[in-house]
Amino acid sequence: MKIIDIIKADKPSLSFEVFPPKTSDNFESVMAATTEIAKLSPSYMSVTYGAGGGTSEYTAEIASSLMKMGVTSLAHLTCISSTREEVHGLLRNLKEKGIENILALRGDIPKDGLVSANPEYRYASELAKEIRDFGGFCIGGACYPEGHPDSENGVKDIESLKIKVENGCEFLTTQMFFDNNILYNFLYRLYKAGVNVPVVPGIMPVTNASQIKRICSISQNALPQQFVRLVDRYGDNPLAMKQAGIAYATQQIIDLYANGINAVHVYSMNKPDVAEAIKNNLSHIIA
Ligand code: FAD
């Protein structure tokens, strides 16, 4: 099924995310977690793409297994370290496996520099165009309510989103955020700029204090006081932190649905227990 049809439906949807293993040793445990999350019957599940593409086969394999379990899958694909020929090979592989949905991404610029001084793709919008020309996929892209760290300013960032959409992205999934007002403000700016594809908010349940450092490096703005107090109070108590993080994410999701947003994506990070707790908290809301 095409994801655009799921997120445009007049019914709340809830999707989850898994990431592939870095090495084959962990493949079985990732598949076990994926299977448990799939049993929750999410609207769809996304499978991320390892930085640099070294684990691309796992992304395709997990996305394909999800289809066999009856769950629509969204395979992520990055382009900054790939050649056109490699991208075409990957697209053929995804198509052969029956995968219909791709999240077209640039990927982070590797810390040790680009593989090529003259990369074949510089932006996700170029990959979106390539996938559109290849044909047959529903294409999504990433967006950043607080601005992408590399962008000069918010206006330029939204201009590049416009190109992404013109080049074939039918929906956008957001980077995590912890204050829904940031999302509402962003949606208004997209509307004013004429970017009118559905935007799926990405919600990260923070369930342990060690996640916070990474989040701060991604987040452009100060974290909300309510969130900071929660981490201050429960960061040293793993069970309490997990419970509080799930409650905070649930509260964000309910507020999004209440404000008319129908599709929400949860960064479930290979954690079936977290995905299940969130789904249970919303049982009547998404019924
Ligand atoms: P782009 O859309 O290309 O944007 C990158 C920067 O370039 C932005 O600053 C943008 O404003 C600017 N820009 C874009 N187009 C133009 C243009 N035409 N002219 C000038 N400037 C332009 N990473 C992974 O490695 N694997 C994953 O699976 C993965 N999944 C993700 C899922 C989501 C929902 C999100 C939000 C991010 C994900 N990432 C993933 C991280 C992502 O790859 C990085 O944030 C990366 O730095 C940017 O990717 P992008 O697709 O947003 O890039």
Describe the structure.
By secondary structure, this protein is α/β, with parallel strands linked by helices. It has one domain (about 5-280): TIM Barrel, CATH 3.20.20. The protein contains eleven helices and nine strands. A nine-stranded parallel sheet has the order 7-6-5-4-3-2-1-9-8. Helix 10 packs across helix 11. The radius of gyration is 18 Å and the shape is globular. The two termini are about 20 Å apart. The model has no long low-confidence stretch (mean pLDDT about 95).
Put the structure in a nutshell:
The protein is built from 11 helices and 9 strands. The protein has 287 residues and is of the alpha/beta class. The protein has a 9-stranded parallel sheet.
CATH hierarchy class name: Alpha Beta
Query: What is the overall silhouette?
Result: globular
* Most strands sheet: 9 strands, parallel
Based on the coordinates given, report the CATH architecture. Answer: Alpha-Beta Barrel
Quickly give the structural class: alpha/beta
Count of helical segments? 11
What pattern of helices and strands is seen along the backbone?
Answer: HEHEHEHEHEHEHEEHHHEH
**Low-confidence spans: pLDDT under 50, at least 5 residues?**
none
Reported by name, the CATH topology is TIM Barrel
Q: What is the arithmetic mean of pLDDT?
A: 94
Write the layout of secondary structure elements.
Elements: H1 3-8, E1 13-18, H2 27-38, E2 45-47, H3 56-68, E3 73-78, H4 84-96, E4 101-105, H5 124-134, E5 138-143, H6 154-166, E6 171-174, H7 180-193, E7 199-200, E8 202-203, H8 210-218, H9 225-234, H10 238-258, E9 263-266, H11 272-281
Parallel strand pairs: 1-2, 1-9, 2-3, 3-4, 4-5, 5-6, 6-7, 8-9
Helix pairs in contact: 2-11, 5-6, 9-10, 10-11
This protein binds flavin-adenine dinucleotide.
Residues 48-49, 51, 76, 78, 103, 105-108, 123-125, 142, 148, 150-151, 156-157, 160, 163-164, 173, 175, 202 line the site of flavin-adenine dinucleotide (FAD).
